[in-house]
Amino acid sequence: MRKLIKKCTVFMLGVLFVSSVLTACGDAGQEGVTQIRMVQYKPEAVAFFEQLQEEFNASHDDIQLSIESPNDAMTILKTRFVREDYPDIVGIGGDMNYSYFVDANILADISDYEGLKSVKPAYLEMLEGLEFVPTEGTFGLPYVANAAGVLYNREMFEEHNWEIPTTWAEFMALCQQIQSEQIQPLYFGFRDIWTCLAPWNALAVGLAPADVCAQVNRGEATFQESYGLVADRMLELMQYAQPSPFAYNYNDACIAFANGETAMYAIGSYAVPQIKSINPDMDIDSFVMPANEDASQNVLNSGIDLQFCLTKECKDKEAAYEVLDFLMEHDNVQAYLDDQNAVPCKDEAFTLAPMLDSMTSYIEEGKMSDFHDHHYPSEMAVDGMIQTFLMEQDKDAFLQKFDKDWLRYNRDIIRKVEEYEAGQ
């Protein structure tokens, strides 16, 4: 009897295990209906994806789409990957997490997906740039991006006849002019250390090579050589900040800008909903950080905010591609842009939010470069390093630490790069 019970128990466990694997990997649930599971990491877009899921399922009899939008999705995803509990599709950003997932061989090659042809080449190049070493294949479908430069109060600019600067000299002259009129030129919320990365990234894309981190990994450059002018420009910006910028946080800066206490705010487009929640009628526009003395060298700081990747455990690629097709439909992309004030990665004509007006030509021409911090390991805490640098204003110590800490926190990646280079 005990042997029979034991055999039955083992059999039932086996059935449960097989059932869970089939459910996790997108095999058919109801007969003839393929289940596709997606996990996306944008909690602020939950309502959009709930609506999208409803519309997809109403228009497809043979595929059932389930979209999860958990808080702290990246931590949950990593935990599930360790447990080998893979969704079919993941919606993630174009940052170091993507790099790690490619390196861990978790994501499927979607080079054969036709929708990739409609994506702006600049964003596909960004994904390639995130690979630790060149990896054959394409592992993400860029969907939307964000843009970072300088937000400005359009009504205030028109009232004072201030012109949008296109060079660094013009930008500094503008700040001086605004200050001379007893108005605060710039406002920072550097108490929240992550906000230090906003002006840093916007300057770095125009002043340092887009692949500087890869160059350092290959031993071809140092940050002391590449980031010197970026550090100088950061210190120059501080001359036009409000008193004690390290005493104020992100929310404080948004409130100050919304209330007209400052003419400009060096932050990304992602801050606009927060600002609009305080002053819904505010007329906001933004311009590309004019980091260079030659305006033609300026570059828009734009990175992939959301992309869709298939995991290698997805059992029905064709069904997953149908989901991607649905996501990439013009009206659905436009709906996301309207909902989130985002920048499209798809190379079609879309209506963009008014606060992107002065950046539109860069977006249309694909003249953009990824956020440098998308290549920084989180353990290195570069945002904290920048904050300390701005407080102490010791450029040499800051850049020396940048190089030293980079070697410390990226040693495994550097070794991988060395092995790759040796095999070429």
Write the layout of secondary structure elements.
Layout: H1 2-24, E1 34-40, H2 46-59, E2 63-68, H3 73-82, E3 89-92, H4 96-103, H5 121-129, E4 141-148, E5 150-153, H6 154-160, H7 168-180, H8 197-207, H9 212-217, H10 223-226, H11 228-238, H12 250-258, E6 264-265, H13 272-278, E7 284-287, E8 300-310, H14 317-327, H15 330-340, E9 343-344, H16 360-365, E10 368-369, H17 382-392, H18 395-409, H19 411-423
Parallel strand pairs: 1-2, 1-3, 8-10
Antiparallel strand pairs: 3-8, 4-8, 4-9, 5-6, 5-7
Radius of gyration: 24 Å
Count every helix, treating DSSP H or I runs of 4 or more residues as helices: 19
| Alpha carbon gap, first and last residue | 63 Å
Poorly predicted tracts of residues: 1-28
Number of strands: 10
Compute the number of structural domains.
2
SSE pattern: HEHEHEHHEEHHHHHHHEHEEHHEHEHHH
At CATH's second level, what is the architecture of the largest domain?
3-Layer(aba) Sandwich
Estimated helix fraction:
40-55%
Shape: globular
Query: Major beta sheet, specifics?
Result: 7 strands, mixed
Strand-residue proportion: 5-15%
Mean pLDDT: 92
Q: What is the CATH level 1 assignment of the largest domain? A: Alpha Beta
Structural class: alpha/beta
Give me the CATH fold name of the largest domain.
D-Maltodextrin-Binding Protein, domain 2
CATH homolog superfamily of the largest domain? Periplasmic binding protein-like II
